[in-house]
Amino acid sequence: MRNPPESIVCIECGGTAHLISYLPEDEPPEPGTAFAYRCSDCIDRFDVVWEEEPD
User: Fold this and answer.
1) How far apart are CA 53 and CA 21, in angstroms?
2) What is the pLDDT of residue 46?
3) Residues with Cβ < 8 Å from 42, sequence gap 6 or more?
4) Cα three-residue angle 18-19-24, rounded to 5 degrees
5) Taking the C-alpha atoms of 23, 27, 29 and 34 in order, what is their torsion angle to the nearest 10 degrees?
6) Residues with Cβ < 8 Å from 41, sequence gap 6 or more?
7) Is 36's pLDDT higher than 80?
8) C-alpha span between 46 and 48 (Å, rounded)
9) What span, in angstroms and rounded, lies between the C-alpha atoms of 14 and 30?
10) How many CA atoms lie less than 13 Å away from 12 in the CB half-sphere?
11) What is the pLDDT averaged over residues 47-52?
């Protein structure tokens, strides 16, 4: 299972939103886990829910 990306494109301004929440390294993300991102341009916060990868 992959880890969440360190940054994503901000849906508000198109800037870069950086991951601000982490799981312990030995604990992979489970479906339903929420990760918080904060945009470095507009300072908005986004919670992204981790979903299972398609087969």
Assistant:
1) 20
2) 94
3) 10, 12, 13, 15
4) 155
5) -30
6) 10, 13, 15, 16
7) yes
8) 6
9) 28
10) 12
11) 89
Per the confidence metrics, is the pTM higher than 0.70? yes
Q: Which residues of 15-34 are buried (b: 16+ CB within 10 A; e: fewer)?
A: eebebeeeeeeeeebeeeee
Helix (H, G, I), strand (E, B) or coil at 8: strand
Q: What is the mean pLDDT of the chain?
A: 89
**Tens digits of residue pLDDT in 8-23:** 999 999 999 999 998 8
Q: Provide the pLDDT for residue 34.
A: 92
Q: 3-state class of 18 per DSSP?
A: strand
